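subagent[fold] <- orchestrator: predict structure for attached chain, return tokens only, no commentary.
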Amino acid sequence: MTIATISQVKINPMAVFNSAIDFPVQIQNRNKTAGYFIGSDLFEKIVEYLEDIEDKKVIDKTDFSKGTSFEDFAKELGI
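subagent[fold] -> orchestrator:
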């Protein structure tokens, strides 16, 4: 993982952002982690992954035996 200091961010923030395109950049302040920069593609992948996990939890909890068959549901919709 790439590490940058707050001073480096202040001097050239775009260089730090550009380093965060594919991998997170750890931002340190006085040798302690202050936060992370991540690129937009990586952020969107993380959000999508978390949404998939939440969807899987809902599906695992759902009792499909109480549901309506597709054919009956289609009839209700008139298709």
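orchestrator: received. Logging for downstream: The longest strand covers residues 32-37. The mean pLDDT is 91.
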